[in-house]
């Protein structure tokens, strides 16, 4: 199994124009020394300077997966996008649903342009899963693009998987509820120890709320809770850490962890 963290690590190493194409896959430097990666064919990369958005599309024939990979916050301008806490109505046809305007703008900067590639791959590989993967700001874009794709292609909805790492809160309570109704059973929101990014934007006075299902890694050994609380954020998940006690190092320390699939979780429902 190719773990989503491995795929995402490649996007951190040499995203956008720095991929080297090969006939049987691609290479992205020493950081991506995963043998299963070489079963993956790069389809396209993208780079938007303003709003900042980077990522790539790829196909893994061994795992039968199409990857839509969004990279995280890497530059000062994208950090500024992250801290603009204003809401924008989304999806427009869901009354009361709203999301972080900066996250939506960052996603919309490229999503309409890569949609034809996603549709083409989905048509060429009709029995492949479509995995939207992202870290940090990229996690927010993975959620927003997966939701938009599901709404526009309901016949493909069951093929969608969403993996996010250190995802910030994307929208308000109504958005979290709607997202859960549509893709909650196919989404894995992974948090690590005291990572500070899942704590922003704050819910206390702005009304942001995470969607489940959360997989909270509680130690360096990879033990974790599965948190499925649809009423409010689970106190045994990433929310257990008060904002003043969070860590930036935990935000960048998801990669290289043992595969989550190999562990028996400490389940909390």
What's this entry about, in short?
This protein is α/β, with parallel strands linked by helices. 25% of the residues lie in helices and 26% in strands. It has helices at 4-14, 76-82, 101-108, 111-124, 137-152, 173-183, and strands at residues 20-22, 25-27, 40-49, 52-60, 65-70, 87-89, 98-100, 129-135, 160-165, 171-172, 187-192, 208-209, 214-217, 224-227, 266-268.
Question: What would your notes on this structure say?
Answer:
There is one protein chain. The protein is α/β, with parallel strands linked by helices and 269 residues long. Helix content is 25%, strand content 26%. The chain is built from six helices and 15 strands.
Question: Which helices and strands appear, and what pairs or packs with what?
Answer:
Blueprint lengths: L3 H11 L5 E3 L2 E3 L12 E10 L2 E9 L4 E6 L5 H7 L4 E3 L8 E3 H8 L2 H14 L4 E7 L1 H16 L7 E6 L5 E2 H11 L3 E6 L15 E2 L4 E4 L6 E4 L38 E3 L1
Helix pairs in contact: 3-5
Order of helix and strand elements from N to C terminus: HEEEEEHEEHHEHEEHEEEEE
Query: What portion of residues belong to β-strands?
Result: 25-35%
H/I helix tally: 6
Shape verdict: globular
The helix fraction, in percent, is 10-25%
β-strand number: 15
Give the neighbour order of strands across the main sheet: 3-4-5-8-9-11-13-14-15
Spans of 5+ residues with little confidence (pLDDT < 50)?
A: 11-36, 257-269
Determine the mean pLDDT. 78
């Amino acid at each position: 199994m190719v773990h989503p963290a491995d795929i995402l690590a490649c996007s951190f190493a040499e995203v956008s124009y720095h991929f080297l194409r090969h006939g049987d896959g691609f290479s992205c430097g020493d950081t991506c020394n995963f043998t299963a990666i070489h079963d993956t064919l790069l389809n396209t990369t993208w780079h938007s300077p303003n709003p900042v958005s980077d990522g790539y599309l790829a196909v893994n024939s061994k795992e039968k997966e199409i990857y839509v990979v969004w990279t995280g916050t890497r530059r000062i301008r994208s950090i500024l996008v992250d801290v603009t806490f204003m809401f924008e109505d989304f999806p427009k046809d869901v009354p009361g649903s709203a999301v972080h305007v900066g996250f939506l703008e960052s996603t919309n900067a490229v999503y309409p342009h890569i949609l034809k590639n996603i549709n083409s791959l989905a048509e060429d590989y009709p029995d492949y899963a479509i995995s939207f993967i992202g870290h940090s700001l990229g996690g927010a874009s993975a959620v927003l693009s997966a939701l938009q794709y599901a709404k526009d292609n309901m016949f493909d909805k069951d093929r969608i998987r969403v993996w996010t790492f250190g995802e910030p809160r994307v929208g308000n309570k109504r958005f979290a509820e709607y997202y859960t109704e549509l893709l909650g059973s196919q989404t894995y929101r992974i948090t690590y120890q005291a990572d500070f990014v899942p704590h922003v934007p704050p819910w206390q006075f702005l009304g942001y709320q995470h969607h489940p299902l959360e997989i909270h890694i509680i130690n360096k050994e990879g033990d974790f809770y599965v948190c499925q609380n649809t009423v409010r954020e689970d106190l045994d998940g990433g929310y257990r850490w008060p904002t003043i006690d969070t860590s930036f190092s935990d935000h960048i320390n998801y990669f290289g962890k043992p595969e989550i699939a190999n562990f028996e979780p400490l389940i909390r429902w």
